[in-house]
Amino acid sequence: MDYQFKEDFQWGVATAAYQIEGAWREDGKGENIWDRFCHIPGNIAENADGDVACDFYHRYQEDIEMIHKLGIPVFRFSIGWARIYPDGPDKVNEKGMAFYEKVIEELEKYQIKPVITLYHWDMPQWLQDIGGWTNRESIRYFTEFCETMIQRFEGRVDKWITINEPWVCAFNGHYWGDFAPGLRDFSAALQTVHHMLCAHGSVVRLFRDKQYRGEIGIVLNLCPKDPASEKEEDREAARIDDGFSNRWFLDPLFKGTYPEDMIEWYTGHQVVMPAVREGDMELISQSIDFLGINYYYVEFAKKCEGRWPLYFDTTTKDYPITAYGWAIVEEGLTRLLMRIHREYGQPRLIVTENGASFADVIEEDGNINDDRRIDYLKRHIKACHKAIEQGADLAGYYVWSLLDNFEWSTGYQNSFGLIHVDRRTLDRTVKKSGYWYGKVVSGNGLTDEDKMG
Ligand code: FCB
Q: What residues line ligand 1, using a CB cutoff of 6 Å?
C-alpha cells in the first residue's frame, strides 16, 4: 500500500437532513427556512425543493444497509431541528425524535458510527420569524434544542458537530441571499456569525458541564485564498478574502479574538461590527475535541473595484474544474491542513466533507463509471496522507456525499453522490466511485496504481 493510513483512521460518508430526508411535513414536522425559501418561485434552479429529496425518511434502512455493504464505518448526518421543535421552543415532537432513534438503531445494527451535525442550515421557521440567527435569543434556543438531542442520544453517538459551515449560512443566507433565509445585509451576516459562534460555544460549555460522553466539535468550510497574480493589489485581495472566509472563524475559535486587520477593514468600509458582549469570546474559544474541515477547492483573489465591502473577486485560474465550477487543487488541502496545524495549536482535524460534482452517465449496462470522481477523491485522499506525514493530527476523512441529493440553490443539478438516485423512481445505484471507496476503506489506504479490480 503506497498510502497507508493508521488503524484508527476514520473513513466516513456525509449527508445533511434537508438534502436527503424529504417528508417535509410528515409526523408533525414544522416548516423550516429551507422549506419556505424553496417554495418561493425563482429561488432555486428549476424551482426544485427538498419536499421529497432522496426520501431518506422512508428509505433510511435501505440506505444504511448500502453503507454497511460498502463497508463504510462512519455515517455523518444532521438533525432537522423543525422535526424536534415544530412550532416553538416549548414542546418536543416525539414522532420526530422517533425517526432519529430509528436511524441510530439501524446504524447500531451494523456497528456504523453516527456522527451528528446539530445544525446544517434548516432553522425552524418560527425562530426565523423572530429574527433567526440575527436575534441573540437564537443562542438559547439552539442550546436547548442541542441539550434535548444530546441528552437523548449521548453514549450512542461518536461525535457531535454543533454547526456546519457558519460562513455559508451567514453570507449566502444573509448577504448574497441565494440561500435561506435569503437576506441581503452584510452587517447582519456578521452579527449572524457571532451568534452562531456563541451558540456553538454555549453547546460546548453545556457538553463539558454535564460531562456527556462522546466528542464535540464544529465544522468550517475552509480553503486557501491565493492571489490571482503577483500584483500587490491581488495579494491584498487574497489577504482580505482569507480574513473574511478563514481567519474570521479560526481566530475566534482558537485565539478568542476576531482578526485585527479585518476589524479595521470592516470599520473602514461602513460595515457595522457585531455586538460582542463580555464573556462571548471566552465562550467561543473553549477547547473542542476536533475541528471538522469541509474542503473542496482553492480560490484565487483579485482586486475588484465597486464590490463593496471587500473589493475582490475570485477566479479558478487555469485549473480543471468540477461541474460546480470549483477548481480541483488537491495540494490546497495539504497546505490548509498544515497551516491550521501550525497556526492554530495543532488541533485534531477531520475532513468532514470532500467530494466532487460531475454529470454522471448511466451506461447501457446500468453502470455509472464516474472515473473523474474517483480521480478527485484519490488526489484528495493522497493529499490527506501527505499532511499526516508532515505531522498534521488528521483523524478522519468523510466523502460528500452518500447520495445524489438536493444541492441547495442548484437544486438537483449537482451530483456528488457515491450512489446515484433516479429523480423519477428514487431508485439507488451504487456508482463505480462507491465500490472504489469501499476498497479504499477496507485496505485502509490506496496504491498509486489503484484501479478498479
Ligand atoms: C457544503 C455543504 C454541503 C454540500 C456541499 C457540496 O458547503 O456543507 O451541504 O452542499 O457543500
A: 16, 19, 164-165, 168, 221, 294, 353, 400, 407-408, 416
